[in-house]
Amino acid sequence: MPSIFSRIVAGEIPCYKVAETDEFLAFLDVNPVVKGHVLCIPKQEVDYIFDLDDDLFTRLHLFSKRVAKGLKQVCPCRKIGVAVVGIDVPHTHIHLMPLNNPGDLNFGHHITMQPDEMADLAARIAAAIQ
């Protein structure tokens, strides 16, 4: 059965898209840890990040870097944190999160954002990504 992320890629489930290429998609996490929490995924469904071939692995990280630079412009912070957990969804994904303190990278804590806030934020991040 396709992962929820593959269903997003296929357009079966909507998302708050911030960037897309032929190979990759970046969108806001609907259960964010912090405002601006973005997920970067390969469109190809591979469960474990270290099972990606070397070229795809590298391109995913370069795509994530480009997204992170735009994200930092829209969500002022000290740094963009990067995490790969890979437990909840069996589809490789990189978490990008604006951080001001080490405790901001806490997957046990989530914030609530309204759909209009999410849509506005996604549009602003998308506009900032070069």
Could you provide a short overview of the structure?
The protein is built from 3 helices and 5 strands. Helices cover 32% and strands 19% of the residues.
Quote the average pLDDT.
97
What's the helix-strand series?
A: HEEEHEEH
Helix content: 25-40%
Please outline the major beta sheet.
5 strands, antiparallel
User: What fraction of residues sit in β-strands?
Assistant: 15-25%
- By DSSP (H or I, 4+ residues per run), the number of helices equals 3
Question: First CA to last CA: what distance?
Answer: 34 Å
Strand order of the largest sheet: 1-2-3-5-4
What's the number of extended β-strand segments?
5
Global outline: globular
Rg calc: 14 Å
Structural category: alpha+beta
pLDDT < 50 stretches: none
Question: What does it look like?
Answer:
With 130 residues, this protein is an alpha+beta fold. It has a domain at 1-36 and 90-112. It has three helices and five strands; from the N terminus they run H-E-E-E-H-E-E-H. It has helices at residues 4-9, 54-74, 115-128; strands spanning 17-20, 24-28, 38-42, 79-83, 94-99. Strands 1-2-3-5-4 form a five-stranded antiparallel β-sheet. Strand 1 and strand 2 (24-28) form a beta hairpin. Helix 2 crosses helix 3. The protein is globular and about 35 Å long. The mean pLDDT is 97.
Which terms would index this structure?
19% strand; single chain; 5 strands; 130 residues; alpha+beta
Secondary-structure topology with pairs:
Elements: H1 4-9, E1 17-20, E2 24-28, E3 38-42, H2 54-74, E4 79-83, E5 94-99, H3 115-128
Antiparallel strand pairs: 1-2, 2-3, 3-5, 4-5
